[in-house]
Design a protein that fits this description.
This protein has about 425 residues and is of the alpha/beta class. It is built from 15 helices and 14 strands. Helix 2 runs antiparallel to helix 11 and helix 7 runs parallel beside helix 8.
Length: about 425
Amino acid sequence: MNQNQSKALYEQAVQYIPGGVNSPVRAFKGVGGNPLFFKGGEGAYLIDADNNRYVDYVGAWGPLILGHSHQKVIDAIETQLQTGIGYGASTEAEVEIAKKICNLVHSIEQVRLVTSGTEATMSAIRLARGYTQRDIVVKFEGCYHGHVDGLLVKAGSGALTLGEPDSMGVPKAYTDLTHVLPYNDVTAIEEFFAVHGSKVACVIVEPVAGNMNCVLPIPDFLESLREQCTLHGAVLIFDEVMTGFRVALGGAQSIFGVLPDLTTLGKVIGGGLPIGAFGGRKEIMEKIAPIGAVYQAGTLSGSPLAVAAGIAMLETVSEANFYTELSAKTETLLTGLEERATAAGIPFTTNQLGGMFGCFFSDEEKVSMFSQVMASNMDHFQSYFHTMLQNGVYIAPSAFEAGFISAAHGDEEITTTLDAAEQAFSAIN
């Protein structure tokens, strides 16, 4: 497969952009080789600078649940373009999308729009600290909550890919207030709260970890967090930037039946355009300026273009059987991958929730712990990634990223993927 134009663009990019990319995980450091440059997307496909087409399982890292260039989203953006790009002031559409979010996510009584998932988590933590008048934040190893200074401790995703769980430039005083516990370890939670519970402002967690690949919560994990936060007066924050409206209409919390105090959202609610949000109990949200003393602001928050795209997306995913069908095709894909891995004699296991999934080169029956993720065979993943790419299938260039299927994926795309996987598993041997 000819990728010369991507190579040439990368050589230019490194002269003007640090590392040649505007987000580290794009750099292919976790798999080797030069990153691809894309110029278009159609349905389930990405098109690179050399006009190669790839079945896309990244979906802009989750938000393109309808696929690329979905007509309803395009129409909504074009309609808004005729009226204006942005105003730096309130709009009726902001009220509409806020109402939709509050109606669909049962734990959210009020919501504030921001411009990114990172901004959403940063703001939610500030709000939790202001509400509780406490400082300590609890997070979990392998969970990434954006590039917030105080949360770059044993972070997942891009940080793991780089081999740098922490970041230079973050004062130790910031991270001293962040305590990291093992994901899916109920005993560790109970023991920590028994000692420090009265000082904890909040616990922030991905209800489905999507930044150490895709790891689902074990029974009682989320329930334990809810119990301990309630008992000790701490705020429970679900980071649903990745899972919100991605795994279910009401987010992961609607599947597991555990309601947080605050929820952070992003990605999907902009239909592919930059946006984020945080929301939750009214008594907490009312601590935010201009009616409360916790300051939060954003000049371009509630971008008319992003909001228009988000409303179109929310209306579409609210249609009957949308998530049932998405989950079914994901199950078909993963069953096929496991069958081909078994036939090739390659240790391989998968996780899934709705249209979100994870693949691990591991002999574990089920991967549920950070240590199991780190023990997976990274060499096998690297080989698998490049063979899939050469056969027209684009997966995340990191063993620590979840995969996503869209409504645009059909039988043809799944067949193409499974044929490529058969070659990829054979190439490992």
